[in-house]
User: Fold this.
Amino acid sequence: MIPSLAEKCGVFGVFAPGEDVARLTFFGLHALQHRGQESAGIATTDGDEISMYGDMGLVSQIFTEDALEGLHGIAAIGHTRYSTTGSSIACNTQPLVVRAPEGFAFHPDDADRQLALAHNGNVVNADLLRVDLESRGAVFETTTDSEVIAYLIATAPGTTWEERFATMMQRANGAYSLTVLTKDALFGVRDPNGIRPLVLGHLENGKETGWVLASETCALDQLGATFVREIEPGELVRIDENGITSTTPVEPMRRALCLLEYIYFARPDSRMRGELLYESRMRMGAQLSQEHPVEADIVIGIPDSATAAAIGYAREAGIPYVEALVKNRYVGRTFIQPDQRLRDRGVQMKYNPMPEMLRGKSVVVVDDTIVRGTTTPRVVSMLRKAGAREVHMRITSPPIQHPCFYGVDMATRAELIAAHESVEEIRQHIGADSLGYLSLAGTAAATNQSENQLCTACFSGDYPREVPLQLDKFALEAVRS
Assistant:
């Protein structure tokens, strides 16, 4: 995908007494690095105390051998974060470790309300919930909605963690897939619509056995864990020394897994609802070829996210697929900023075209989205300079016309080019010879899921739950930064 869209986070959890749970979490987070590259953290419990270490940067930069040796116990959770507007700061690194403040009325035998939490998603009523919690004595140290969720759980009435989670799930409106650590248990939670993914895996090592929670199945594969099932919308699972138990504290609502997970966010080797995403994306490309055919010499994909779709398009159209763009996979977050001259060549820092493959050719370029329309024109221009005679853009999603309130970096309609320009106007803006978007029906069909079982809000404006009309996504973070 051309860099313009970002997803909020990846979460992980493991309960495996006798294993190096911090190291297992490190490898799980490494597999989920694509879901966030701003910060990462790991929290562990030894049964009595929760420890946490995290920092800004990539997983491989943060966790040295010394850092991992300081984290030990029977269970761990981890988080890799994409930071939203105003929140790329160290205090927002997760997992968050919180304890209910003094002054909350608890049962005399219920004094220890400490937990660590990792969150993927966005809670749209977080600001109102935060005001209520502050009025009752909660002191916030971050600017995130995730800390609001953590305090909702820590301060909720009830003598069991299950009762406290139920209170949170009844009050929070939005998307949340959580891994939560208490001193003796690991919890996995998914919002009633199931907007963000969460899966359960089983880990075996001789006589020892363990359980794994992760945003995607690719993290299970990394550890050699066996996929068991997806956590269901509205479900709470508890994993401790007695095994695994499941409850449904709130009634599930309309299933609404984010369609962008299929199109772009998740790794192509992950599976969702039984579908390998690589195959889903190939079907998107094939359907796109049927809906928007064009005479051309070659098909290329924007690496790596659109590669499968480009192959599907090429096969369906009978046009050769060519790798004419090479991606520099080591261009990512860096502490050494380029000067203005290099910054202006940012697209070519990430992609390098091969003129020998493009010269004189009519080229179909397959990508997954156009969001703001700031980077695509540079790619089209770069391909023309490399010798392409014609450039036909094909997008494996419908036009994005509405903001996302559930954890995707699309804050306002003003930022979305398709919200105020027609397809023809966008074509002119990006400088392509033609432009075609995959229909919403075609995109959904490629997932083998019915359209009403997916969240299509950014394409259709049909939100799974009511959201405030005036809400600007991540307003909480922007205001509190």
The mean pLDDT is 89. The longest strand covers residues 114-123. The chain has two domains: 9-256, 278-330+339-449.
